[in-house]
## 1
Amino acid sequence: MVSFSMLLYNFGKKQVFRAAGVTNPGFLDSAFAPFKPAVNTRWDNTWFYVESKGLPDHSMMTGITSWQQQVPIFHCYIGSNAWSIPLNPVKAATPVPVNNKHFLRGAVAIAANGIPIFNPYTNTGVDAYLDGQLDNWGGHSGRADDYHYHIAPMFLEAKSGPVTPIGFALDGYAIYGGKEPDGTAMKALDANHGHTGSDGRYHYHGTAAAPYMIGNMVGVVNEDTTLQIVPQAVAKGVRPALTPLKGATITGFHPNGSNGYTLIYTLAGATDSIVYSWDASGKFVYDFYTPAGKNTQNYNGKAVCQMPSSTDKLSKPSLFQAFPNPASDVIRLSMTTASFQRAVSSVALYNSGGACVFRKAGFVSAIQVQHLPKGIYFVELQKGETRSVTKVVLK
Ligand SMILES: [Zn+2]
Ligand SMILES: [Zn+2]
């Protein structure tokens, strides 16, 4: 056998060889899981796909003091227009800077809640945060009325926990918040705004100050002539882009049912608003209220898209339990029935960076872990054509 660190996997009906550098899809999936079903995930041998409608579960837009007159609408980041994260990140010989010359269009990363994260610099080359263009969550709407962040969405830690990635860069490397994957304080960052973790994998960290998230793209990415990373999901607008509204401050933003919003702003001492909504067939109505009166604009846009029903096998009730959790020297495994136990073809343990640290054919009832670094691990059981994964913390 020449299979140094090569793993034979069985995804669906395909036999797949995965090299040691390939990230375990279960690791990526664990970051997006807290935000399902608004986010859907799936993967093949090359890419991990993230699907969403581009609208987060938090409020938006308030706090903006330099506004482009764009507002958030849904987008169909679904199917062939899903976000793509490479499962086999490759370190670049020369990391490309995320600055005012590169990656000025489109996303550089995708947040765990399915919202794209753009370069801190806008397509006009200014720091969007320092320029007052961002809301209280570090986002705003672009020219296609597409909501996206321009800095690291650190607040996602509140929902996903401090040791789960808040997103993934489009080069395939994880982005953490203010803690290391093992729960300790963030270690010193290199010029790329990350470092190699104790698991041997590179990761980035978000911070409150520039460069906020990614100094340079450590992994290989393809930048097209329009200065965006490809492949890249596309946001399709329904109305012409407007120009900045000098002096406007957004003070309120509220949903109108499930298919529209009211945005309130102040300008020259007056309080104005936009009330907008869409229907299932794709008719968009924007009502602009100003001291001069109401101005209604109608657009025939795009039909409402449906999120696919989850194809995620990992979220099904687990066929097995791993305990104790947290564990210190041994992880014990217990199957729900003896027949399930006989059907298990392999047991594997992955660290939080996706590296396989234990693997054995057939079922095992205990995995010795006292020699492993503390942190988050994933126990994976292969049974027929399905896999079952559960998270275990080593303390
Ligand atoms: Zn933007
Ligand atoms: Zn770190």
Note: The chain has two domains: 25-230, 316-394.
## 2
Amino acid sequence: MNLSFDNTQNAFAYKSTPDLKKAKFLISVIQNPLMVSLATKVTPFLMKMGFPINGILRNTVFKQFVGGETLEESARTAKLLGSYDVQVILDYGVEAKEGESNFDDVTSHIIEAIDFAATQNNIPFISVKITGIASHILLEHLNEAPRLRSGIHDSESENAAWERVRERMYAICDVAQEKGVGILLDAEETWIQDPIDRLAIELMKEYNKEKVVIYNTYQLYRNDRLLFLQLSHRLAKEGGFLLGAKLVRGAYMEKERDRAIKLGYASPIHLNKEATDKDFDAAATYCISNKDTISLLLATHNEASNIAIATAMTNLSFEKNDQHVHFSQLFGMGDHITFNMAVQGYNVSKYLPFGPINEVIPYLMRRAEENTSVNGQTNKELVLLKTELARRKSTK
Ligand SMILES: Cc1cc2nc3c(=O)[nH]c(=O)nc-3n(C[C@H](O)[C@H](O)[C@H](O)COP(=O)(O)OP(=O)(O)OC[C@H]3O[C@@H](n4cnc5c(N)ncnc54)[C@H](O)[C@@H]3O)c2cc1C
């Protein structure tokens, strides 16, 4: 097992030296929690007031974390990644705009992205956020009311709204299946996740009979998710379908804990990082040990987790590019993992959001916040960028 993430020449070969310098500047700025806190408050306000800050955003945080404003622009980024054997998960990054016509609009954009992905040889997946095609309040109601768990709901208008969400998802999945593109359903906050899980199981039953088209996302920072993964697997075996499992640690830890304290219920999040790490690695091991019935997408920037699963693959005599195991990092983060794994021949992809600049702002703000809160990782990214810049200078 000779997988190492230290080779910065591989990691940043796709970036020009000026782009590397820009990335270094950006990462050092967003390492500062005060700057990020200020930017995440002020930027949406300035945009709303019509201040001309699009140019600055486009050349900084947008360029680092987003594929482009349109499908055509993202296609260029996707092609560039493809030339380094890196695959792409396309994500229409517009977040949670309420209203039925907006939901229909997002559905059309997702279908367009699937059609486009089918014409490319390195875009095997599209990611879908249910919050882009369903009302948040509807999801909360479906999640909360225990009577709904039986499938019986006494609000006709909400039943009709949920039916429309299902129709949108079926329209998306029909095209995905026909075009041979996988669908990754993102995981959300616990207070809206139940209906997403139920829909994911329903869709897997329908579309994952011969191969995995639909993947649900399991957040292993939740203390019930390892069990839920195993339960989903049991349902798959009993129902005669294959399980698609995208594993993440989870993005909403602070929000989850704050809400639990505020409303006085036990936090659904593990007590510490070690417990999250343990469940994450156990879940990944569980998936690869059942690869005949589970396809795994390991979505993490954690070096140890990526190494652990790559090592387990070697021990189980898997090919590095086994079709049931896929690794993924976000565009703009973890390049040392992505590109070094690609060089070694693993299936590895970048999660690549695209969309109009003013509409992907919430996504960008989350990335900036994440880069501040995951401090160790940002430090590492900065060290790697500096190392590569120094290496290029010394070889001039
Ligand atoms: C391709 C891709 C797709 C993603 N899709 C989703 C998605 O659909 N839904 C979603 O929620 N997230 C998603 N994420 C984000 C993901 O959940 C993590 O927030 C992010 O990747 C950081 O975790 P890590 O494993 O990369 O790194 P690490 O640095 O190893 O882990 C950081 C994570 O560990 C957990 N953690 C940190 N401290 C503690 C603590 N004290 N106690 C308990 N747990 C702790 C948190 O989840 C934190 O985000 C995605 C990430 C990637 C790479």
Note: The beta strands are 87-92, 125-128, 182-185, 214-219, 243-248, 294-299, 325-330, 348-354.
